Amino acid sequence: MPVKVWNRDNGTLSSVVETVRRASLRGELFRVDAEALDREIDRMLDRAVELAVVVVATESEQQAFIKRWAVGRALMESGLLQSEQLDPGEEKWLWQAIARKCRLGVRADGSSEAAWQELTPNREPDPTRLERDVFAVGLWLQEQELATAMMAFGGSRTNAREVYRRGAIRTKNLRDVLACWFEELEPSRRSILTRPGNFLPLARALATRFPGRGPGSAKRPVHYSNEELYAEVCKVLDPIANELASSDAEPVLKNP
Predict the structure, then answer these.
(1) Cα(161)–Cα(49) distance, integer angstroms
(2) By the 8 A CB rule, do 62 and 134 touch?
(3) Rounded Cα–Cα distance for residues 217 and 147 (Å)
(4) From CA 222, how far away is CA 177, in angstroms rounded?
């Protein structure tokens, strides 16, 4: 899947066509296909903007969370990742193309679209970090409806990353149960426990209960019914939650 990557130098817009082929200059041979993909990305980003404004969030952390979710849902709806034209290893070029369009706010025809610039970080990290922090996390978050995902992580992008980076507890059924667990709490207690500093011990405890390898790793969250998993989550998190909520203190974050 050849992609068009936009650039702006001294105010002048230009673009190059990138592919996984060794002879990068041959990318220009596929510009027609890259232009067609660029127009598809336009539609995808317009959809992401539409999804991101459905819910009004006043806190910046919630806004960032919603944008991640919206980009992921728009990507999934677009079908870009299911395209037969997308070869293994080409995702990084697709992420780069999308991120560059967002950073520059440029449509396929060269016109400006400022709304896109709010969807991704202002600075453009390397493709690996884009995949991890924006697109992969967004695709993962959108597996749940927005309200459920917001409940599971308190609308915090930081909290979501703490679970995402622990592969054994990424599963949707665990996230659904986590949302149920938080929903049962009093709003004031929920607010305390979803602070990033307080959420971290919860994520660590879940990862300890469901390790990715070694003793105890054979039975993972997907092997439990929802009722069984909810009981396990309560058993693990209730004691920690009671301690954190009673102290009503925000622990100092330490490196895990």
Answers:
(1) 22
(2) no
(3) 30
(4) 12
Q: Which two tokens stand for residue 170?
A: 């990424």
Tokens 């995402």 found at: 164
| 30 touches 19 (CB < 8 A) | yes
Q: pLDDT tens digits, residue range 166-205?
A: 999 999 999 999 999 999 999 999 999 999 999 999 999 9
State whether residue 233 is helix, strand or coil.
Answer: helix
CA quadruple 137, 139, 143, 145: dihedral, nearest 10: 90
**To the nearest whole number, what is the mean pLDDT of the chain?**
87
Largest CA distance in the chain: 65
Is the pLDDT at 123 greater than 70, yes or no?
no
Instruction: Look at the block and give the residue holding tokens 């027609």.
Output: 32
CA geometry: angle 169, 174, 179, nearest 5 deg = 125
- The one-character DSSP state at 212 is S
How many C-beta atoms surround the C-beta of residue 67 within 10 A?
A: 22
Q: Are 124 and 100 in contact (CB under 8 A)?
A: yes
Residue with token string 């980003």: 45
Cβ contact 128:167 at 8 Å: no
Q: Is 158 helix (H, G, I), strand (E, B) or coil?
A: helix
